[in-house]
Amino acid sequence: METISVIGSGTMGRGIAYSSAAAGFMTVVQDINKSSLDSCQAYIENQFNRSVENGLINREEGDSAISRIQYTTKLEESAQEADLVIEAVPEIMDLKIDIFKRLDQFVKPSAILATNTSTMSPTEIAAQTSRPERCIALHFFNPVPKMKLIEVISGLETSEETVVRSIEFGKALGKECVKITEFPGFAVSRMNCLIGNEAMNMVMEGVGTVEDIDKAIKLGLNHPMGPLELADLVGLDTRLRNMEYLYKTLGEKYRPCPVLVKYVKAGRLGKKSGKGFYDYN
Predict the structure, then answer these.
(1) Residue 93 banded pLDDT, cuts 50, 70, 90
(2) Is 211 annotated as a binding residue?
(3) Which CATH number fits domain 188-271: 3.40.50.1240, 3.40.50.300, 1.10.1040.10, 2.60.40.1930?
(4) What pLDDT, on a 0 to 100 scale, did the predictor assign at position 188?
């Protein structure tokens, strides 16, 4: 693989693009929103400049990595030369399917189409293309440059070659890859959503404050981040979409906490909106 295309310039997309360029791949980032692309570019360049300032890489390496990234609002332009296309748009099945259908029309025959979904079926997404054997789910974790894991989830028709090439790409980024059998929520999201939702229920029930519940989980279970702090980082709207999908596919124990639903309706989406379970203003 030489060229990677990332569809979506939000939190996950920019993290994947940064990691791809840092690993030496030519990288193209696509988003229909020009202001989001500009924000993505500023973020990535700032991250490389900070790495130079902190002595992690030299100036030449930083400038070289920045030069390997291109930005575009045109989907076809972003993916027509790509060896691997990674879709990193919101967890909305119809949106993902629409993007895969469009990509299928103009990416080269050897290209792999990957979805960064954290819960949804790669089989269902791949079935909308003429190349299900070259479709896969690669679930990265936030923040992508720091998190070491990629869940690799095959669809029903995914070929072994696609799995091997995807894992090789993950290793080139310095990540650990685990192969997970397709099932709603995979491994990490299925457990993480359950823990986070229960923490929200405890807040609603008055078991403890947001801060104390997070501290209890961090110190008692040795988690690096509390479940409510993590939900704010992921985005409460994203978490709600995940919970709704798991509730639909796995049943009652994944019913979204009423507090989560209320916060999203109020526009309290977590860190990205300035307020969620914590106030970031």
Answers:
(1) very high
(2) no
(3) 1.10.1040.10
(4) 94
Instruction: Write down the pTM of the prediction.
Output: 0.89
* 208 labeled part of a ligand binding site: no
Residue range 121-177, pLDDT digits in tens: 999 999 999 999 999 999 999 889 999 999 999 999 999 999 999 999 999 999 999
Is 94 annotated as ligand-binding? no
For residue 101, say whether it is annotated as part of any ligand binding site: no
- In the chain, CATH 1.10.1040.10 sits at 188-271
10 among the known binding-site residues? yes
Whether 174 contacts 25, CB under 8 Å: no
* Angle (nearest 5°) at CA 104 between 101 and 109: 165
154, 136 in Cβ contact below 8 A? yes
CATH of domain 1-179: 3.40.50.720
Q: Kindly report the backbone phi and psi dihedral angles of residue 177, in degrees, each rounded to the nearest multiple of 5, phi listed first.
A: -115, 135
